[in-house]
Automatic annotation (TrEMBL):
Pfam families for this protein: AHSA1
Lineage start: Bacteria, Pseudomonadati, Pseudomonadota, Alphaproteobacteria, Rhodospirillales
TM helices/strands, residue ranges: none
Domain Activator of Hsp90 ATPase homologue 1/2-like C-terminal: 27-159, 188-320
Family: Belongs to the AHA1 family.
Protein known as: Polyketide cyclase
Species of the source: Nitrospirillum viridazoti CBAmc
């Protein structure tokens, strides 16, 4: 016999394959973690489409409760109860969850591991949920977990973006916050090859955009000349669109590109930037790329370094594309 909580059960339990879900969320890692850590935020998203969360109790410390009530459109309530098993702020969260029957017996448990990491335009969530099933009738419900998680994370993406000020809503007041950063990467490739990755749309599309599988390209144009424009528009899994609109101001082949660009999330303009790319030789067959960017973040949009992080990720992806 095995003891689960206060319930003794037969040791011959069912252990289906773990469910693994990954999702890019267009919000800062600290914001996404906060969305998991407070009941007032969890109530906005921790349920599939058309469900609500009328009750939640969360104390994000080891041993603290993590309890959520999901309510169906017909009013039926489904409770998930458990506790926090591990917590590393902004990096990792492990929950020991269970679903009980009406008689209080445990139907199944779900050991839920969530990791948070920076990605191109926000946060990468990786979730692994490992089940121990005590009632075989629950296998069908667990079979629907991937779709349920997909719908739930759509809601999380929307809520986290709202928390981060990245929605299409009109701001309460106008503002502009300025930032500047400079990043360098040295590649094992000659300047001409790096230049092609920056100036040719086919080559640039290999690295400039959201993570594959998490971001769908909707529109891609590039007219690489002084006075020309570039657009990259795509949709995140959560439904939010991001749009990059650039205007080329100065081009010196194999040496320098200067351009301005505007970023939109949905219909909201979040920033206007001036960027300079400089290529320098770094020894035989090697090239250093330096990107300097000055940005104005608009009307309550809080960047807090995410643009710099995202640019660094893109530069790393550019380097990987040069190895193809």
């Amino acid at each position: 016999m095995t003891q689960v909580g206060t319930q003794a059960v037969d040791a011959a339990v069912l252990r289906p394959e773990p469910v693994r879900i990954s999702r890019s969320v267009p919000a800062r890692r600290e914001t996404v973690f906060k969305a998991w850590s407070k009941a007032e935020h969890v109530k906005h998203w921790f349920a599939p489409a058309h469900y609500t969360v009328p009750h939640a109790t969360i104390d994000l410390r080891v041993g603290g409760p993590f309890e959520v009530c999901m309510q169906a459109p017909d009013g039926t309530q489904h409770w998930t109860r458990g506790s926090v098993a591990e917590v590393t702020p902004n990096q990792r969260l492990v929950l020991d969850l269970r679903v009980d029957g009406g008689d209080g017996k445990v139907l199944f448990t779900a050991w839920t591991e969530v990791t948070f990491s920076d990605t191109t335009c926000g946060t990468q969530l990786d979730i692994v949920q490992t089940y121990t099933v005590y009632d075989p009738a629950m296998l069908a419900a667990i079979g629907g977990a991937p779709e349920g998680w997909s719908q739930t994370l759509d809601k999380l993406a929307r809520h986290a973006a709202h928390m981060d000020g990245r929605t299409g809503e009109q701001p309460a007041q106008r503002s502009a916050v300025h930032a500047i950063f400079s990043l360098e990467r040295t590649y094992d490739a000659p300047a001409a090859r790096v230049w092609r990755a920056l100036s040719d749309m086919e080559a640039k599309s290999k690295w400039f955009g959201g993570d594959p599988g998490q971001w769908e390209s909707l529109e891609r144009t590039m007219d690489f000349r002084v006075g020309g424009t570039e657009r990259a528009k795509g949709r995140w899994q959560g439904g939010m669109t991001s749009t990059f609109d650039a205007h080329y101001l100065d081009i010196i082949p194999n040496e320098r590109i200067v351009y301005s660009y505007v970023m939109h999330l949905d219909e909201r303009k979040i920033s206007v930037s001036l960027a300079t790319m400089e290529l320098k030789p770094a020894g035989e067959g090697r090239t250093t790329l330096k990107i300097t960017e000055q940005g104005a973040f608009l009307d309550g949009y809080e960047d807090n370094g995410s643009r710099e992080h995202g640019t660094g990720f893109l530069m790393d992806r550019l380097g990987a594309s040069l190895k193809d």
